[in-house]
Design goal:
The complex is a heterodimer of chains A (about 350) and B (about 350). By secondary structure, chain A is an all-alpha fold. Chain A has 15 helices and no strands. Helix content of chain A is about 80%, strand content about 0%. Chain A starts with a helix and ends with a helix. The chains are: A mainly alpha (about 350), B alpha/beta (about 350).
Chain lengths: ~350, ~350
């Protein structure tokens, strides 16, 4: 006797239940119950879930059937989705491969000075450059520089795409409340969804050997701050200044490029800084789906219980994080200084 | 007072704020009050049946307390705010019929604006800020800079071209704002409480600067203020707004002597009449002269200066001249009588 037998009996569905009953799968919980003997104590009344209803009537699917249904459904539309998404995302694979090959091909004694000069130009801070020299020396010394470069290549490609895609989305949101209301839930979802969870559909869609798989994962995760802060920054531009722009007859484009983006730049830069930091966080997790770089070593450390390997790679990631953060923050404070 | 041509004209202008202003327009025209509209229909009556003509080369001052709709009104002229009903004519053309392109052209080259909070671009230099209008029009950088330099020089900011706005004091920032409006070379200048955010002394010097510029430039200036002293100092034509409608408009001296509403009497009561009233407003005809004149005064002279001239003697009388011709006669006794202010009405604003 199952708890909800009365329901189907009362509705006169007993015959339909029996006729359509599939193969009865006995779950572990049911087996346990059987060994303990039938008990109908009131406090053990189960919630009328799919499994509980299935106990009473074989025609009702179990929860396991439901998840399998979802999977089959996804597999059915997979071909169609792939047809659309594959060519759309293929350039991402090329860019990631290209960046990895390009930066990998430059010898260290050229690449390190290039990176130092770039950092000096962006940050105008000698302290940061000295810190970079020490960090790169350590990484080169323990033979982790190659992986560091791989990680940096992936981050730079993903950050550029995040900015190129995120900036227009943020601008569109700032111009229309309707667009903003439509996009904010998507951003909320991308930010709150556990990172592993949205690797799942990606693994189904793309082959695990393709770079775009981890590229998409990183971009989806890291694009949120640049979109949010572009929107916020433009909305926070002084109303009086916007009104003056209108009063002197600026077109929408003149206003956007000449007033709104320059005045929103501190916020936009803060968004870019966050985007870089988040793509660094994600590039480690993306090693699960074959992203190369320092993350791979961390994963190896976890999988093989190799403390030293994981620790050194983790330390390298911390160094990159500090460098990227300080360089972008220094650029940000320069922009701020120009405004006030 | 003058027969200059009408440059800007506002006709039967109505503005109702809310979700569906059109449907209450007819009721407002029939006399639905501001309070009823707010309480029963949750719409705000911004402006009600405004009719003002602004003449070429004159300063029209629109005065009112906060909430009287004066800032709303000035923003209708360049359509930063769209009216609910009515007409706005600039050079006889209906601005409301303009498409976006024509409207931008109007704002770029026919109407400039000065703002209460300056509204300068913080990331551009003073020179770039001053050259905003021609830059928007897409002119050559060299000519823009030359023009901007000229006007910065004129408002007393020579040497500050490469500073940024935040490096300047409030008064100097507003000079940049003024230079920006002048560089646009627009014949019409809208000034929205342009001097209200400044210290009293700096405000006075900015008013003097504006009047001095105006003697050369003869722009059509529409000036918003909540300060009666400022209004009386600048206005050729004064419009007094209250709760979104025009209480009285006309020549400022005339309004001062003949206030037609307790609200205006209230305003006028606090004024230093000797400093504001001018000889021309209170003089009698030249042939009414009973005493032999003790001297000559000009119609534009303030009563204060005449008192100083007479040394406080109320028995004196003066011949009044304008442009070298005798136009009237002034008895000091009449002058003193004109200084007695009407009492603040018991049912006026301050009674409540």
């Amino acid at each position: 006797m199952a708890t909800y037998d009365f329901l189907f009996n009362a509705l006169g569905l007993r015959e339909w239940c029996n006729a359509h009953a599939g193969e009865k799968i006995t779950g572990l919980a049911a087996l346990l119950k059987k060994t303990k003997g039938e008990s109908n104590a009131w406090h053990e009344t189960p919630f009328p879930s799919l499994n509980a209803l299935n106990d009473a009537c074989g025609a009702i699917p179990r929860s396991g059937d439901f998840t399998r249904m979802l999977e089959t459904g996804f597999l059915n539309i997979r071909g169609g989705l792939k047809l659309v998404l594959d060519p759309l995302t293929q350039p991402l694979s090329w860019m990631l491969d290209g960046a990895l090959t390009l930066f990998g091909a430059i010898p260290w004694f050229i690449l390190v000075p290039l990176l130092l000069i770039a950092a000096l130009l962006v940050s105008r801070s000698v302290q940061i450059v000295i810190f970079m020299i020490i960090s790169f020396a350590i990484l080169l010394f323990v033979d982790h520089f190659e992986m560091t470069v791989e990680t940096l290549s992936i981050i730079s490609v993903c950050t550029v795409i995040c900015v190129v895609v995120g900036l227009p989305i943020g601008i569109a949101m700032s111009k229309s409340d309707r667009v903003q209301n439509a996009i904010i839930p998507v951003l909320d979802m991308l930010q709150t969804l556990p990172t592993f969870v949205y690797l799942i559909p990606l693994i189904f869609l793309f082959s695990i050997t393709e770079p775009k798989l981890y590229g998409i994962a990183i971009i989806l995760y890291a694009i949120v701050p640049v979109v949010r802060l572009t929107n916020l920054g433009i909305r926070l531009v002084d109303r009086d200044v916007k009104e003056a722009a209108d009063a002197f007859g600026m077109s929408d484009m003149q206003k956007l490029l000449g007033v709104e983006i320059p005045l929103a730049l501190p916020n936009i830069m803060a968004g870019v800084n966050q985007t870089i930091m988040m793509s660094l966080a994600m590039v480690v997790i993306a090693s699960l789906v074959s992203a190369p770089g320092l993350g791979e070593r961390v994963l190896q450390g976890i999988n093989n219980n190799e403390l030293g390997v994981g620790f050194i790679a983790g330390f390298g990631i911390v160094l990159i994080a500090i460098i990227l953060d300080r360089v972008t923050k220094a650029a940000l404070s320069r922009v701020n200084a120009a405004h006030h | 007072m003058s027969d200059a041509k009408i440059k800007v004209s506002i006709k039967n202008l109505y503005k109702i704020f809310g979700t569906d202003p059109q449907s209450y327009l007819e009721a407002v025209k029939q006399g639905l009050s501001k309070t009823d509209l707010k309480e029963k229909h949750n719409h705000v009556l911004g402006l009600k049946d405004i009719n003002v003509d602004m003449r070429e080369g004159e300063i029209t001052v629109i005065m009112g307390l906060s909430g009287s709709g004066k800032s709303t009104l000035i923003r209708h002229l360049n359509r930063l705010i769209e009216p609910t009903d009515g007409q706005i004519l600039v050079d006889g053309e209906d601005v409301l019929a303009y498409n976006d392109d024509k409207l931008r052209k109007l704002r770029q080259s026919r109407m400039s604006m000065v703002f209460q909070k300056f509204a300068l671009l913080p990331h551009r230099t003073v020179l770039d800020n001053a050259g905003m209008a021609p830059r928007v029009r897409g002119e050559q950088k060299a000519t823009i800079d030359q023009e901007a330099r000229k006007w910065l020089d004129r408002v007393g900011l020579k040497g500050f071209e490469n500073s940024y706005p935040h490096q300047l004091s409030g008064g100097m920032q507003q000079r940049v704002g003024l230079a920006r409006a002048l560089t646009s070379n627009a014949p019409i200048m809208l000034m929205d409480e342009a001097f209200s955010a400044l210290d009293p002394l700096i405000r006075t010097s900015m008013q003097d600067l504006l009047l001095e510029l105006q003697t050369d430039l003869h722009k059509t200036i529409i000036f918003i203020t909540h300060d009666l002293d400022e209004a009386l100092k600048l206005a050729d034509h004064l419009v007094i707004l209250k709760d979104g409608y025009v209480v009285q408009q006309g020549e400022p001296q005339h309004i001062l002597l003949n206030p037609n509403d307790p609200y205006i009497e209230d305003f006028v009561a606090d004024i230093n009449r000797a400093r504001v009233l001018r000889v021309g407003s209170i003089m009698t005809d030249a042939d009414h002269a009973t005493n032999e004149p003790d001297g000559v005064v000009q119609t534009r002279d303030t009563l204060e200066s005449v008192i100083a001239l007479a040394g406080g003697d109320t028995n004196k009388a003066y011949r009044v001249e304008e442009d070298g011709k005798t136009v009237g006669h002034l008895e000091m006794r009449d002058l003193v009588r004109a200084l007695v202010r009407p009492h603040a009405p018991v049912d006026g604003v301050r009674a409540s």
